[in-house]
Amino acid sequence: MPENSSDRIARAAGRAARAFRENQTAERDERARRTPSADRPGLKDRAAQAAERVGPVRERVGHAAGEAGRAFREGQARDAERLAEVSTRVREEDEAQRAQRRESRARELEERDAAEAGRVHPLLRLTRVWWLAVGLLLAALGGTFIANGLRAEARGGRVIDPLTGLESVGPLGGATGQYTLGGVLIALALVTLWGWIGLLRRRRSAISTLTTVAVLLAIPAATRPNALFLVLGLVMALGAVLLWLPPVRSRVRR
């Protein structure tokens, strides 16, 4: 049967494909037979080419890392500045609120003082009178001690303690001891009168001042159980209690 052109074309294509496969197989066999020493120059060339291709990439990566580091540091600096601004603003707002509260408190007290003009709470009035009497009592006792010291220095002889009625002996005995005790009592009397003036002006500091005086004068009542000392300690304790009662504390300023 005569062959047509399509059969010839198909046979030619098959021969070409078979020749290509044989050529590929021969090249693979040739590469497999080559020694490592013969292939080493090619490897070096390919490594050099790869290094040349990687170099720009490495530079770009380093540049990007540097940019990221600078951006991070700049962001940290901006965050620190914003935090400092916020802290300053919060501190200023707190100070303004505290000042506003103080002004509001002072205004309320002034309004209450104006509303209570001529009217004083009975406990506050009693506390004022009480501590005025304590201050005058301390001043009188101090004057008595000093007068006793002057008399003892002028006449000589024994010195009788005006509080205990006994002979004054020991380090505080004699005229010098009487002067010392009198000076201490007069100083406490002055502090007490200062606290009393604070009560008249409705100052909160007067409470702590008079409480300190009460504690100092109550110590001898506990250390030397004498009748007069016990009475003085009781007077001091009652005065301190009056100072810390709510009707008194709420009517004094800070």
Automatic annotation (TrEMBL):
Alphabetized SUPFAM superfamilies for the sequence: MFS general substrate transporter
Region spans: Disordered: 1-112
Basic and acidic residues bias (residue ranges): 1-10, 19-47, 70-112
Transmembrane parts of this sequence: 129-147, 179-199, 206-222, 228-245
Matches recorded under InterPro entries: MFS_trans_sf
Keywords, alphabetical: Membrane, Transmembrane, Transmembrane helix
Protein name (database record): Cation transport ATPase
Source organism per UniProt: Micrococcus flavus
